[in-house]
């Protein structure tokens, strides 16, 4: 039997401080850090390729809204459809009706696959609005997205959410999320965060070596690596919703498959340049 004394005990308060009804959470800081670091790195890319900062500022607004709206709707539709179809206002409002009265809950529930779809839609709208080549901006943006994802998973760790399965006996980095239970588990959030950092390093190195890759190549490799990682790490996670317990592959894995297939197509396809 696993000895809990051999595991890392995690009982951090997800709220840093509170002023009245407002509370600053580590998750919110990680979310803001994700956008801040992404902006700085994208600015370096824009400067390198002679693009104006004003264009990046416009892009940042599109991406922020696309991420938030897509991730929220993705969670509501993919994971809690039965509830939110009966309470549609709660999809877009940070309130929940409890015992006939409305309570401030924030947006509890964001799905990364929904965020990915939201970002793609935002990029399509941005490229049309600014006459920017869709594949050009996508190939550059996906370089920094894995780093942003790592910050978000770190926020999940502070929240003691998206926890891993019980760890095998003797695993030295097993974590007991005391706010959940007293079981030593895989720190799946940290597994994912570390993998995302490695994906960022790979894509950044590829871009530094060749600033003008085949259109769609970086996007394709990103989809293969990131969603392939997501598919694999899901085997170490607890299911997010009860309906997934009877499924061979959970919702996160099923949603990852189309992204991986799309990545293979983009990475292997022949463009006009490669045909020449």
From TrEMBL:
<feature type="transmembrane region" description="Helical">
    <location>
        <begin position="188"/>
        <end position="207"/>
    </location>
</feature>
<dbReference type="GO" id="GO:0005886">
    <property type="term" value="C:plasma membrane"/>
</dbReference>
<keyword id="KW-0808">Transferase</keyword>
<dbReference type="Pfam" id="PF01790">
    <property type="entry name" value="LGT"/>
</dbReference>
<keyword id="KW-1003">Cell membrane</keyword>
<keyword id="KW-0449">Lipoprotein</keyword>
<feature type="transmembrane region" description="Helical">
    <location>
        <begin position="249"/>
        <end position="268"/>
    </location>
</feature>
<keyword id="KW-0472">Membrane</keyword>
<dbReference type="InterPro" id="IPR001640">
    <property type="entry name" value="Lgt"/>
</dbReference>
<feature type="binding site">
    <location>
        <position position="153"/>
    </location>
    <ligand>
        <name>a 1,2-diacyl-sn-glycero-3-phospho-(1'-sn-glycerol)</name>
    </ligand>
</feature>
<feature type="transmembrane region" description="Helical">
    <location>
        <begin position="105"/>
        <end position="126"/>
    </location>
</feature>
<dbReference type="GO" id="GO:0008961">
    <property type="term" value="F:phosphatidylglycerol-prolipoprotein diacylglyceryl transferase activity"/>
</dbReference>
<protein>
    <recommendedName>
        <fullName>Phosphatidylglycerol--prolipoprotein diacylglyceryl transferase</fullName>
        <ecNumber>2.5.1.145</ecNumber>
    </recommendedName>
</protein>
<dbReference type="GO" id="GO:0042158">
    <property type="term" value="P:lipoprotein biosynthetic process"/>
</dbReference>
<keyword id="KW-0812">Transmembrane</keyword>
<feature type="transmembrane region" description="Helical">
    <location>
        <begin position="26"/>
        <end position="47"/>
    </location>
</feature>
<feature type="transmembrane region" description="Helical">
    <location>
        <begin position="59"/>
        <end position="85"/>
    </location>
</feature>
<keyword id="KW-1133">Transmembrane helix</keyword>
<comment type="similarity">
    <text>Belongs to the Lgt family.</text>
</comment>
<comment type="function">
    <text>Catalyzes the transfer of the diacylglyceryl group from phosphatidylglycerol to the sulfhydryl group of the N-terminal cysteine of a prolipoprotein, the first step in the formation of mature lipoproteins.</text>
</comment>
<comment type="pathway">
    <text>Protein modification; lipoprotein biosynthesis (diacylglyceryl transfer).</text>
</comment>
<feature type="transmembrane region" description="Helical">
    <location>
        <begin position="216"/>
        <end position="233"/>
    </location>
</feature>
<feature type="transmembrane region" description="Helical">
    <location>
        <begin position="138"/>
        <end position="158"/>
    </location>
</feature>
């Amino acid at each position: 039997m696993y000895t809990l004394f051999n595991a890392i005990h995690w009982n951090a308060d997800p709220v840093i401080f509170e002023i009245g009804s407002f509370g600053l959470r580590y998750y919110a800081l990680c979310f803001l850090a994700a956008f801040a670091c992404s902006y700085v790195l994208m600015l370096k890319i824009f400067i390198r390729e002679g693009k104006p900062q004003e264009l990046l500022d416009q892009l940042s607004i599109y991406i922020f809204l696309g991420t938030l709206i897509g991730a929220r709707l993705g969670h509501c539709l993919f994971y809690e459809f039965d509830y939110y179809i009966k309470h549609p206002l709660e999809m877009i409002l940070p309130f929940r009706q409890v015992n006939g009265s409305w309570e401030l809950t924030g947006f509890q529930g964001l799905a990364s696959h929904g965020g990915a779809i939201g970002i793609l839609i935002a990029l399509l709208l941005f490229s049309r609005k600014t006459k920017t080549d869709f594949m050009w901006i996508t190939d550059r943006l996906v370089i920094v997205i894995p780093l942003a994802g790592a910050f978000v998973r770190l926020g999940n760790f502070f929240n003691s959410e998206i926890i891993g399965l019980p760890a095998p006996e003797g695993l030295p980095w097993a974590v007991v999320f005391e706010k959940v239970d007293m079981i030593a588990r895989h720190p799946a959030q940290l597994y994912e965060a570390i993998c995302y950092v490695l994906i960022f390093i790979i894509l950044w190195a590829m871009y530094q070596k060749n600033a003008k890759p085949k259109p769609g190549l970086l996007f394709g490799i990103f989809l293969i690596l990131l969603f392939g990682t997501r598919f694999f790490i899901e085997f170490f996670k607890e299911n997010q919703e009860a309906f997934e317990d009877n499924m061979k592959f959970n919702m996160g894995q099923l949603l990852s498959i189309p992204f991986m297939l799309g990545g293979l197509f983009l990475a292997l396809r022949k463009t006009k340049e490669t045909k020449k």
